Amino acid sequence: MKMNEATGKRRIKVLIAKPGLDGHDRGAKVLAHAFRDAGMEVLYTGLHKTIDEIVKISLEEDVDVIGMSIYSGAHLPLSKKLMEMLRDKNLTDKLVLIGGNIPHRDMETLKNYGVDGVFSSGSELDEIVKFINERVKKKNG
């Protein structure tokens, strides 16, 4: 467990994943830097990870947050599979965020799958950091 040197508290650990054939990773890298600047520990999976690999990494690394950046349009099936696998592996304590090219009409469906937060392209970095800080604090009591 890594500690935040400034606060002496445990650092929030975030996994940023790029599932499927999506090759656009600029947004994921921007998020990784913003989260590190906010004092979080960040793991970036790199491109073309399967949902199985993402779940395995999140379990092995004991992350607090799983964020998938999706620009390919496959956000619904990928998110549904992720949430099903997390339930199957009893990893429902993870905060799950989906971001990227997400149409407004799909946001409610993603939340019905169990996704905690949906951030479409153009979301403010400070808003996402605040969301993570508040939700992880709430989940950890």
Fraction of residues in H or I helices? 40-55%
Structural class: alpha/beta
Structural domain tally: 1
Q: Looking at this structure, what is the CATH superfamily?
A: Cobalamin-binding domain
Structural overview:
The chain has 141 residues and is of the alpha/beta class. It has a single domain (13-139), classed as Cobalamin-binding domain (Rossmann fold), CATH 3.40.50. 42% of the residues lie in helices and 18% in strands. It has helices at 26-37, 51-61, 75-88, 107-113, 125-139; strands at residues 13-17, 41-44, 65-70, 95-100, 117-120. Strands 2-1-3-4-5 form a five-stranded parallel sheet, with helices on both faces. Helix 3 links the parallel strand 3 (65-70) and strand 4 (95-100). Helix 2 packs across helix 3. The longest helix is centred in the last third of the chain and has 15 residues, at 125-139. The chain is globular, with a radius of gyration of 14 Å. 34% of the residues are buried. The mean pLDDT is 91.
Q: Topology of this structure?
A:
Layout: E1 13-17, H1 26-37, E2 41-44, H2 51-61, E3 65-70, H3 75-88, E4 95-100, H4 107-113, E5 117-120, H5 125-139
Parallel strand pairs: 1-2, 1-3, 3-4, 4-5
Helix pairs in contact: 2-3
